[in-house]
Amino acid sequence: MELTEAINRAKQNDQIAFNFLLDSFWNDVYAFQLKRTKNENDAEDITIQTFSKAFDKIDTYKDKYKFKTWLITISKNIHIDLVRSQKKSIRNTSKDNEDHYFDIIDDSPSPEDKIITEQNLANLLRDIKKLKPHYQEVINLRYFQELSYKEISEELNEPMNNVKVKLLRAKKLLAEIITKS
């Protein structure tokens, strides 16, 4: 499949075209993020978010730009947003011009937070059960058993890119279920 054809078919919501684009550009986006984050898990998560956002906004892609450049730009912006949100969690305050200190927020959960977390987890598990079994399985393996894509691929005896796409679709479907309820 040619790149232009794949992009046009992806704009028509063709799953094969999405798989082709994911296969073609996954390593480029992942390598870019690995250099930026120096963390495999963060790079992987940002890469997944990149493709998810790109596939959601594929209609906005203009062919005057290279597709890879468009993806890298999306990826870079996602990373910048994550860094900004992390910086907001630690406030830098000062008493005098000379005395600087960091006011670190206490993240330990209160009893109320623990109850809320348990309720949210119960709701999440209920929503996950609304997915088709193969989506439930891939979410379970990735987020509850914390397996890597390679380990999931071996467990399911499927190519790694299929696992990535399945997980991407499962997360998208789960988000739709959660927003409806």
From TrEMBL:
Residues 126-174 form the RNA polymerase sigma factor 70 region 4 type domain. Keywords: Sigma factor, Transcription, Transcription regulation. It comes from the Bacteria. Pfam families: Sigma70_r2 (PF04542), Sigma70_r4_2 (PF08281). Residues 27-88 form the RNA polymerase sigma-70 region domain. The keyword Disulfide bond does not apply. Belongs to the sigma-70 factor family. ECF subfamily. NCBIfam families: sigma70-ECF. PANTHER family: RNA POLYMERASE ECF-TYPE SIGMA FACTO, RNA POLYMERASE SIGMA FACTOR SIGV. This is Sigma-70 family RNA polymerase sigma factor. It comes from Winogradskyella vincentii.
